[in-house]
């Protein structure tokens, strides 16, 4: 018979909840409030119901930005998670080599986001940048400010360069936490390298990988600074992702109502995806029994 | 209501959410929840079902607003979403 779930411990988070209420919940409430009003001036406002939501949902620019955003986040996850795990598996386990590798791998994480954008902006230029110059010399017609494909590839490679280390460090921490006894048992059983990865390392890394997937999904879904600095959303609208579109609305045009409605839709999308990813990864773990 | 331009509609909306939280807390103290498996693909507690139901309800409302005709009322979409919320809470 299943027992009732004891949730009394939740009372302990009440003080935290009060703090968060002031810093996050109340601001979120004001966003809800603004999403149903037309703010004409600080003293003049009109209740417009769901008009902004209707406008935003039927906005073709927003739909395009959403599709671009989904494709981008999917690409980021498909590349960064396997690459990060592979990197973690290849990193030395102990000694000075481990420390040196960790420092080198963590380097891109220390660089501020707008600097990353600037670094790649220069790196990708064919006149003064190393990357762009080499590609041009190889006979490839590469120009991220003019070609959609090149702009996409540059933004994607930049994100992979910037954030794969995070996945690698998390996976590395997960790997180091596996007791030696597991490997010894696998050796006695004559398990192949792949079997060790599939039945020991991967299930043991499930927790950290779940954090990595959620973090990378949320961050890539909210990406703003790097593409803004690198391509400015161009060429055309080719790399205008959701955040940048939202900023154009809220700051550029000062349309607080539509921007608030958009923020709420954005929030709901992230909530749904994180919920699905979280439950999916929880379920994957149950198949492995002991993990 | 002048402060931060609050409107009665938004106040009612958050009033309902606060009421829901109070009711859920009282229910939890009175009859602690038991995790169970309904038609949803995962085993859920009462709070899980409320979260899933509210999330689905939000999407139903958005779909209604996005797809219905310009002058259509929002209430059919709202009604459908509340039915769905009830269904998730009851059998989910």
From TrEMBL, chain A:
Protein name as catalogued: Sugar ABC transporter permease
Transmembrane intervals: 9-29, 70-90, 102-123, 151-175, 207-225, 259-278
Keyword set, alphabetical order: Membrane, Transmembrane, Transmembrane helix, Transport
Annotated ABC transmembrane type-1 domain residues: 66-277
Family of this protein: Belongs to the binding-protein-dependent transport system permease family.
Compartment(s) where it occurs, according to its Swiss-Prot or TrEMBL record: Cell membrane
Main location: membrane
Membrane protein topology class: Multi-pass membrane protein
Highest taxon above the source species: Bacteria
Alphabetized Pfam families for the sequence: BPD_transp_1 (PF00528)
Record-linked SUPFAM superfamilies: MetI-like
Cross-referenced InterPro entries: MetI-like, MetI-like_sf, Sugar_ABC_transporter
From TrEMBL, chain B:
InterPro entries: DUF2160_TM
Keyword set, alphabetical order: Membrane, Transmembrane, Transmembrane helix
Membrane-spanning segments: 12-29, 50-67, 73-90
Pfam families the record matches: DUF2160
Protein name: DUF2160 domain-containing protein
């Amino acid at each position: 018979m299943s027992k009732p779930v004891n949730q009394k411990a939740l009372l302990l988070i009440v003080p935290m909840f009060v703090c968060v209420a002031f810093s996050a919940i109340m601001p979120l409430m004001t966003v809800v409030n603004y999403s149903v009003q037309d703010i004409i001036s600080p003293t003049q406002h009109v209740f417009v119901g769901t008009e902004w939501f209707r406008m935003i949902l039927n906005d073709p620019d927003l739909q395009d930005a959403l599709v671009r955003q989904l494709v981008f986040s999917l690409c980021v996850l498909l590349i960064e998670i396997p690459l990060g795990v592979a990197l973690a598996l290849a990193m030395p386990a102990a000694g000075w080599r481990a420390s040196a590798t960790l420092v080198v791998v963590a380097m891109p994480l220390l660089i501020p986001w707008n600097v990353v954008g600037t670094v790649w902006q220069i790196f990708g230029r064919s006149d003064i940048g190393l990357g762009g110059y080499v590609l041009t010399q190889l006979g490839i017609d590469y120009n991220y400010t003019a070609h959609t494909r090149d702009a996409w590839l540059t933004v994607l490679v930049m994100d992979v360069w910037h954030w794969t280390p995070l996945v690698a460090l998390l996976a590395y921490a997960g790997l180091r936490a596996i007791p030696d006894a597991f490997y010894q048992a696998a050796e006695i059983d004559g398990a192949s390298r792949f079997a060790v990865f599939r039945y020991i390392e991967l299930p043991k890394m499930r927790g950290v990988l779940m954090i990595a997937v959620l973090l990378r999904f949320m961050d890539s879904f909210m990406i703003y600074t790097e593409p803004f600095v690198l391509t400015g959303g161009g060429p055309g609208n080719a790399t205008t992702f959701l955040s940048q579109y939202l900023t154009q609305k809220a700051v550029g045009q000062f349309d607080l109502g539509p921007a608030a409605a958009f923020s709420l839709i954005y929030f709901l999308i992230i909530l749904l995806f994180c919920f699905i990813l979280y439950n999916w990864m929880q379920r994957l773990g149950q198949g492995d029994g002991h993990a | 209501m002048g402060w931060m331009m609050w409107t009665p509609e938004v106040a009612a909306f958050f009033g309902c959410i606060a009421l829901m939280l109070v009711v859920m807390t009282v229910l939890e103290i009175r009859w602690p929840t038991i995790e169970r498996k309904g038609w949803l693909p995962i085993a859920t507690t009462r709070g899980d079902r409320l979260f899933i139901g509210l999330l689905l309800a939000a999407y139903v409302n958005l779909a209604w607003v996005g797809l219905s005709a310009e002058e259509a009322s929002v209430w059919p979409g709202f009604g459908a979403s509340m039915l769905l919320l009830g269904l998730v809470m009851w059998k989910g």
